[in-house]
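Can anyone check this?
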Amino acid sequence: MKIRAHAESHIVELDDGSHWQIFPGDLAATLSWKPETDLHLEPSGDRVSSHVLVNAADRTRVRVIAAGESWPAGEVKKVLKGD
């Protein structure tokens, strides 16, 4: 899948029409994304996110949830603190 829009740093729209909210701790990994970046959506076994977007070029993984959903606050704080 390719990026259709990434106007807001924490939301990405893919060419299939889906919108994903990027985990706050993973935003830095998205700075190099360009419209031609090839991404793969995979289910996540993570306690914080439902899916991951994987950059096909360098295999970096970014945790995401569907746009409009809420992050599990307690889990996000634990992950960001490194607990």
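Reply from J.R.: I decoded it. The helical segments are 73-81.
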